[in-house]
Amino acid sequence: MLIRIVITVLLIVWLLIATRRMRIVPSRGQVANEFILGFIRNNIVIETLGEKDGKRFMAPLMAMFLLILGLNLTGTVPFFNIAGTSVIGTALVLAIVSYVMFIYAGIKKFGIKYFKNALFPAGVPWPLYVIVTPIEFISTFVLRPVTLVLRLLMNMVAGHLLLVLCFSATHFFLLTVLFTDGNLLGLLGIGTFAFGAAFTVFEILVAVLQAYVFTFLAAVYIQLSLAEEH
User: Fold this and answer.
1) Nearest CA among 167, 164, 162 for reference residue 192
2) Which residues span the domain enclosing 196?
3) How much is the CA Rg of the chain, to the nearest whole Å?
4) Transmembrane segments in this chain: where (predicted)?
5) For the chain, how many structural domains are there in total?
6) How high is the pLDDT of residue 18?
7) 3-state secondary structure string across the chain
8) Shortest CA distance to 49 belongs to which of 230, 168, 222?
């Protein structure tokens, strides 16, 4: 919880400072901030939802990406050493937010007919709805939020465990060198440290990728709710 609070406060402070004095001729800091925000806007939101619908959902999707990224990266920060998303609560809340957004988008556009469109796809013979409708219900209203939670949670937990194993082994082997006279087993600590360093870089890439995937899928689900045919 402390990690979540710290990252949330840091994100709020950063965005307030970054957008307080915007210039027509940007400074280097403004260019960097515009690059990050522009990447989310152009490559996730607008590309998936289009200009009109993208503007409607820009704020929650952008906040979702930045929050997930910030919480993911704490797994590689010394003295934090655990991702804020490696506990199910955060992933679950974000999945619920995504769930509410895509259902809201569908109801806003189609009204109650949204559920008919989702559960009874056009062009399917009526007898087959006995099979198709339960499948559509499970895939749309159950599996979407569940897979969002599991994908984010399991990736961050797996990364955390890998780093713990590598650096715990390094600690053990260093203690072996210090307290055991001439024990060459301690030299294995060099290898475990090298693996830990490599996995740290890999975990940073995973942190960025998972933030992108989660936000992209949330945008895709909204887009599917807005589509004329499901």
Assistant:
1) 167
2) 2-226
3) 23
4) 57-80, 87-107, 127-150, 157-178, 184-202, 209-227
5) 1
6) 84
7) CHHHHHHHHHHHHHHHHHCCCCCCCCCHHHHHHHHHHHHHHHHHHHHHHHHHHHHHHHHHHHHHHHHHHHHHHHHHCCCCCCCCCCCHHHHHHHHHHHHHHHHHHHHHHHCCHHHHHHHCCCCCCHHHHHHHHHHHHHHHHHHHHHHHHHHHHHHHHHHHHHHHHHHHHHHHHHHHHHHCCCCHHHHHHHHHHHHHHHHHHHHHHHHHHHHHHHHHHHHHHHHHHHCCCC
8) 222
pLDDT tens-digit readout, 62-99 = 999 999 999 999 999 988 888 999 989 999 999 999 99
Using a cut of 0.70, tell me whether the model's pTM lies above it: yes
Residues sharing a CB contact under 8 Å with residue 75, sequence separation 6 or more, in sequence order: 81, 82, 83, 86, 156, 159, 160, 163, 203, 207
- The residue whose two tokens read 């490696």 is 86
Token output for 1: 């919880």
* Measured CA distances, 4 to 65, 164, 212, 218 (Å): 14, 20, 19, 21
